[in-house]
From TrEMBL:
It comes from the Bacteria. It comes from Candidatus Hakubella thermalkaliphila. This is Holo-[acyl-carrier-protein] synthase.
Amino acid sequence: SKRGRPAVLLHDAVLRYAQHSGVEGIEVSLSLSRENAIAVAMVVRKDDRG
């Protein structure tokens, strides 16, 4: 059960980052693994054009 918490926290961080950055069209699933969530975070950061 502890193993699932970091993924959820990171998922929440990704969603907050996307909302804060005004990024649109990004769907993030609660079932994302930690690796996928990190990849999404990288994509969001790369695609951020202010």
